[in-house]
Specification:
elongated; alpha+beta; 12 helices; 3 domains; Arc Repressor Mutant, subunit A; 18% strand; three-stranded antiparallel β-sheet
């Protein structure tokens, strides 16, 4: 065995129980429970050596990955699970679409919605991005062992931050593919959490799908959204105003229906 990955007897006493526990993410609290009989300073020193030799990978203070094979690169059994360890929130946006098998968009960014934390952390090939939603950080369920936004809240979140869901094309494609969305619940999120401008954008997109791809939804959805039409607004707020003006929704479509429904037109 290469000298730099050889484990001493004391290191084996610490690492072997961690390895046999079948936990690939381990916390300081779990380690203390396992090695309650050993001095904390001794355990900490050995943990530092295990990190140096690549048997553990520190992802943040008090949280480690247990490496099946010693490596300086992190081994991740499940990046979705790791995202929930990093940030106190729920899996959302494009990540939630993937969990619900509604998107095959290949992304190495894991999105976690939180009430008040926005930051990113790169671990291996993945970027873990926390997105602060404030009071919109709601609508959570437990699905496939994850804390994830409900399907209804997932689509609402995607309309709020389409750039974190692969863009409008991925959102409309996922909407078209799904057949379980509870429109009443979706509408409640819209009523409670949307600005007038957001309602105009959602209404324009849904109306476009209805007209172009024969997408069906309760008439009450568009009826409510039309009531929220107020002043002229851009579909993509951060881009220039150049685009087609849609009078019914008072929307400047500066993105383009060919891009919004690219999977339909060019699929």
């Amino acid at each position: 065995m290469n000298k730099n990955i050889y484990l001493s007897k004391s290191e084996q006493e610490i690492f072997n129980p961690l390895f046999k526990s079948n936990e690939w993410i381990i916390t300081n609290e779990q380690i203390k429970n396992i090695f309650y009989h050993k001095k904390g300073t001794t355990v900490n020193k050995i943990l530092s050596r295990l990190i140096e030799k690549g048997y553990l990978y520190k992802i943040k203070r008090g949280v480690y990955l247990v490496q099946k094979d010693p490596s300086k690169s992190p081994f991740m059994d499940d990046p979705f699970e790791l995202g929930l360890f990093l940030y106190n929130g729920y899996l959302a946006l494009g990540t939630a679409l993937r969990i619900y098998d509604l998107s095959d968009y290949e992304s190495f960014t894991i999105y976690i919605v939180t009430p008040n934390i926005s930051r990113s952390k790169i671990i291996g090939q993945y970027t873990f991005r926390a997105v602060a939603f404030g009071k919109k950080a709601t609508g959570i369920t437990h699905y496939k062992k994850y804390y994830v936004s409900t399907i209804e809240k997932t689509f609402f979140d995607c309309f709020v931050k389409p750039q974190y869901a692969g863009g409008y094309s991925e959102i409309t494609k996922a909407l078209f593919q799904q057949n379980v969305l509870n429109w009443s619940e979706f509408l409640e999120y819209v009523k409670e959490l949307s600005t007038d401008s957001m309602c105009q954008k959602i209404g324009y997109i849904l109306d476009l799908m209805k007209k172009e791809v024969d997408f069906s939804m309760p008439e009450t959805i568009l009826q409510y959204l039309k009531k929220r039409v107020r002043t002229k607004t851009k579909l993509i707020s951060t881009q220039k105003s150049k685009g087609k003006y849609e009078k019914e929704w008072k929307i400047i479509d500066n993105y383009g229906k060919d891009r919004i429904l690219s999977w339909w037109y060019h699929g």
